[in-house]
Amino acid sequence: MSRKVFGQNRGGGSNYQRQMGTRAVLVPGSSEADAEAARRTEYKRRKQLEGEALDEKFQFQVWDYKTQGATPRRGWVLNMIPTTVQVTDDSSISCEKSALDLYCFDPDGCNFKATVVYSPYFYVMPAPSNNILYDDPHNANYRNTIISHLQRKYEPMGLQHVEVMYRQDLDMINHLAPTCKGRLMFKLVFFTVQQLMDVRRDIQPIIEKNKARIDTAVHTFQPQHGNTTSSPGDILSSLVDIREYDVSYVNRVCIDLNVRAGTWYTITPTPDHSITLTDSNNTKRAEPSVLAFDLECTKAPLKFPDAAVDEIFMISYMVNGKGFLIISRSV
Questions:
Q1: Checking DSSP bridges between strand 159-167 and strand 183-190, what pairing results, if any?
Q2: Which helix (H) or strand (E) holds 160?
Q3: How far is CA 210 from CA 8, 150, 169, 207, 238, in A?
Q4: Which of the residues 13, 165, 187, 279 has the least number of beta carbons within 10 Å of its own beta carbon?
């Protein structure tokens, strides 16, 4: 299983947040978009190689099913980083999936890294009038029509599947009623975060237009039995809200799978290139080595320090509770 890691932009991103792509070669006559995509892929590949070299430097052994089988290992999670992995299904088809690298150490103090694969998603919500009759066949026909259209439109962009969900919405007048199942929503599940962002950029302007239109007139798409002649624009015109599209991938995995840093887990690799986390314990304290430091430097009045002209005159740091001070005598 090869690894890719996605991260922030070049300007402010961490070296840990990286993503590997296949090595790209520019083909003469390719479009400007293809050339830009090739440059991004090459940049991600370089960042991934740098990250792997850094992991090896700190001796983080990869703990996965390919190398260790289903052998469980006790580990204390000290950090987590978004990543993508290349996985192969039963039909020998390879695809890229978003995942989370968990950096851990075991009770003996040995470092290792395990990867949990999890699909990102967001919700789209139809107009409230489509949530009245939950079990009516008319409503079921509506749901199936929306799902079918979303899959046809967005599967080429990376949509994995669509699920019908009911979620509690405090804006509903009867949300406390025992018979209220919640707000009808469509859960759009993707292979990678980049695919989620691409689809979000496409569907969000449509939803914003629908919101503006509904502010002035109620117009929703409700197909009758056997009605398949409605245009795609009419179908998406009933979507009036998008939810949880801005939840970061790290937060999404931690919330849904109850993953917490500073917690002991029994980590067991699985054949689907992921892991299971069991027997959590956040009361037993681990004993990691901790390095904390602070830099003091010169600067102009009312200005931030400038690396081109200002100098560091003091570095204070502590290692496992022991403090040290380094002072420059030349400043």
A1: antiparallel
A2: strand 159-167
A3: 31, 16, 19, 5, 7
A4: 279
Q: Could you tell me if 256 and 273 are in contact, meaning their C-beta atoms sit under 8 angstroms apart? A: no
Query: For 12-36, how does the pLDDT look when each residue is reduced to its tens digit (9 = 90+)?
Result: 444 434 443 343 444 444 577 778 7
pLDDT for 233-274, tens place per residue?
567 888 889 999 999 999 999 999 999 999 999 999 998 889
Residue 60: exposure state from Cβ atoms within 10 A (0-12, 13-18, ≥19): buried
The token pair at 2 is 């090869």
Query: Quick count: other Cβ atoms within 10 Å of Cβ 274?
Result: 20
Q: pTM (2 decimals)? A: 0.75
Backbone angles phi and psi of 43, in degrees to 5: -65, -45
